Amino acid sequence: MDMKECYDLVVAGGGLTGVAAAVAAKRHGVQDVLLVERYGFLGGMATAGLVNPFMTYFKAKKPYTEENQLIFGIFQEILDELDKLGGLKNKAVFDAEVMKLVLNRMIQRAGVEVLLHTFIEGVNKSGESSIESIRVANKSGVYNIEGRVFIDCTGDADVAYMAGVPCNKGRDEDGFAQPMTMCFRVANVDRYKMPSNNEINRLYKEAVAGGEIHNPREDVLFFDTMQPDVIHFNTTRIVMKDATDAKQLTQAEMEVREQCWEMFYFLKRYVPGFENSYFQVSAPQIGVRESRRIVGRYVLNEDDVLSGRKFDDSICYFAYNIDIHNPSGTGTVLKSLNEGDYYGIPYRCLLPLNVDNLLVAGRPISSTHEAHSSLRVMPACTAMGQAAGTAAAMAIKAGTQPSQIDVRALREQLMADGAIRW
């Protein structure tokens, strides 16, 4: 392979978080940046998980106007590029295929080196507190890739976990994480004949009571797509499975496809407008809401979120609900911030306790189960990725560790880059 033996920065995971991290670092002068992704395309949950639309990236319960927008920077660039290519609607619904193209172009313009179809299967450390290299497996074999700084954007904290970073999973009482969900789409739907949400859910509950539905979710959740006759469903629910356990993840994938088709047959049989519909597509992989969460230098908690706490080292701001899908069955807990409020995500949450040259960005940052349920969604994760890439660049330039950079200078740079505004 025509690859370098050592990179200044290695970013693990090519979802929106990893793309933002790699692009930000490259823009800030890091010469050798490698982005490693297990699939043959970028985008993570936005493409491999078919997760759609973007959850709100605006202040709590406010109109969706720029004045109330919280996430900008590289996330805004992605929105703008999607829109130019006809792949964005209402600032939230997007085309997953257009997303793949947008991300490809973004990393190529930035000059980021990318390695697709590559699975990270090990970490080699230098001493107790530094990663020397990651061990990858792909068509070229199994080999090591060295780096000066690493950013874990895998979603499951894979690199952090393999490096010995302490991690938590799920809720405190039993360790169960939020359920996994497979998104799927139904096409050729006559929207004009579709009943109200309340009526669809009444029919659904009748089917559950009659034993025709085995999905533990309490209601039917669906969204618009870019196509008027296609409905997006985010309504399956696999509970009490660990997304970081290969056997349980396999079981989840097998079970959830049965749920997808069971749901489709219910729609076709009972819900007006679906008589002539067909099952268009299911996601390449099950969607994972929650798995590992690192223990970092600060653990963001529920009170921080709901009280709208801002920190001196906030690297982005967010206001999505506490949104906890029952890890063991039926029901969803929703708690909102006060009208117009928002909270900060501290830089310290991206810094693991015991590995100096590692940053973690995206949903596995240091937080409680409750706080995680708010910050886990794609806009916030993209913002965290940009902050992590910017911080890594500052550390590499200064010849220091990410924990030793001037956080005020990091915030000033993020403001200069248009990523945050306060």
UniProtKB/TrEMBL annotation:
Q: Which InterPro entries match?
A: FAD/NAD-bd_sf, HdrA-like
Pfam families per UniProt:
FAD_oxidored
Q: Which UniProt keywords apply?
A: 4Fe-4S, Iron, Iron-sulfur, Metal-binding, Oxidoreductase
- Which molecular-function annotations from GO does this UniProt entry contain? 4 iron, 4 sulfur cluster binding; metal ion binding; oxidoreductase activity
Membrane-crossing residue ranges in chain numbering: none
The yes or no answer to whether the keyword Cytoplasm is present is no
Name used for this protein in its record: FAD dependent oxidoreductase
User: What organism does the UniProt record list as the source?
Assistant: Mahella australiensis (strain DSM 15567 / CIP 107919 / 50-1 BON)
